[in-house]
Amino acid sequence: MRINSKVIYITLIIVILLLVTNNTSYYWYTKSLLTEALSMRMESTANQIRTSIELSEEGSFFVEDLVGEKLRAVALFAASKLDPDADKVSNEQLVQLAKQAGVDGFSLMKRSGVGNDIMVAKSSEPKELQIKSTIPFGYWFTAFDQLMTNYQVSIPEGQKLPNFWSGIYEVPASGSSNVSKFGYYYDGSTNYIICVFVNADKIQRFKEIVGADTVVKKTLAANQDILEISGLHGVTFGSKPIEYKGNDGTSFISVYDRPLLFGSYNITNDKDLKYYKEAIQNNKPVSVVESWNGKPILKTFMYVPVKNKLTEIQREVPYVISITSDYQSIQETLNKQLVQLMLVVVLFTVCSCIFIYFVFRFITKSRETAVQSTQEMYIQNVDLMFATIRSQRHDFLNHVQTMYALLANGKKEDQMKYMKELLEEINEVNDIIRIGHPAIAALIQAKFALAMRTKIDFTYEFTGLDGLALGVKSVDLVKIIGNLIDNAFDEVNKFPPGEREVIVNGWSESNQVTISVSNPVLPDFQVEDYNQMFSIGYSTKGDGEHQGLGLSVVKERIEHYKGTIEVCVEDGWICFKISIPMQ
């Protein structure tokens, strides 16, 4: 009996250790998977923020260039009104000219006579008159010097037009305003450069509407577990940026040199700079779990380098997107699982002890019978416990093997879908502009930028698309909506700028997703049979990029998904309304 008891106790201890080991492994594997899933979600969010910021920056650069073109036109106007000799122009005359031209001010810049320096000789802004040297201005001085020497500017920075150069909107060295946009004109007919400047409030207003900080606010509002988003300058963060001295002695930092480009940076850690540099050096996202105010958080750093030069004027700067998310929910889930696993172990141990007790009572009647009975019970008990272990491990290993197989076969999307069903923790962010579908969001943002360039009043509203399985490929959605919008843009371009309007709406109802695109048409617009509008080759345009193919593509794709399309002309407007069944 003594030997049998010892063997049983040892077996019981081994089984308990196996259970503990198995459950502990499951706990740590689950933690690893949840952390990895959250990291990938944050990387996906960072990528969507990056895409939205790139689109908004392209739009802001476009607006800035429009302001530059207007500054050149104003400078030409000033050249026709001013004496070619700066000494014969008074500051009061420049004040009156600025009011007449509708700008904030004019300055006349000429060689100072000291070396090759350039100074402000006359100005409508008294603070500008304090600028006696522009050599410390860096590439700005290079642009001034090239303009006065060659009548043209060749440096890569800034906007270059005939006899004209304009830098980025910047903090004035004179301290005359917070941020201004300057333009410089010189054609050799005067002994001075005409400098015209305006407050950059329009550019800043545009950035407030669709800029990076707006993207950050919308992302934070849509994701309650994201605590903070920061746009860290890819060069100046972690080091002291270059400080420029204004003529009044005050220091200022260039708009494009600020360490924090957008968002906020209040949740800090001494190791942030290390992870920031690691993300830049490896050009790969870095995710780390840290503690902040006694709570666990997950920080993800993703480097966004400057793209290849796409336009004649390149003003982008590299930056790192830092996303701080709440790790408390994952930690609470893990702690709950740990408690449950420990309860299972304790309950199983108690049950095993009770069972062994009754076995002992039974085997006392006969040693041989007891030995045999004990051995049988022992084997059955061990088999039962190992069956329990195998059953518990079976499902877990199946999950891990399935995800491993998906990963090994390069089926990343299938792996993500499986993990979402298994863990129920991933809620991917599709909507930067609250549309609910990333492909539609990207298309609308691109068309919004095009509408601004062509002076079209483009409005849109999408509701009820968040998280829906539309059953339509993203490529086909872009084809359908994109062609309808392109067709509307082509039609309204026949109107003068103030009358160009396109309205896009999208919603879901009765298990269908509906998109409508409306635009005004000319009074003589007539179509006897709306069906012919969707025929290949039909077009109301004599030339252009869309020669009767767009609407035929729309019809073909709608019919492919067994949807419907309606066309209505009423009160000078035409409306295309499509409906596609959801799966």
UniProtKB/TrEMBL annotation:
PROSITE patterns membership: HIS_KIN
State the UniProt keywords alphabetically: ATP-binding, Kinase, Membrane, Nucleotide-binding, Phosphoprotein, Transferase, Transmembrane, Transmembrane helix, Two-component regulatory system
Residues in Histidine kinase domain copies:
477-583
Locate the transmembrane regions by residue number. Answer: 7-29, 338-360
Pfam families on file? HATPase_c_5, SPOB_a
Q: What is this protein called?
A: GHKL domain-containing protein
Query: What species does this protein belong to?
Result: Paenibacillus chondroitinus
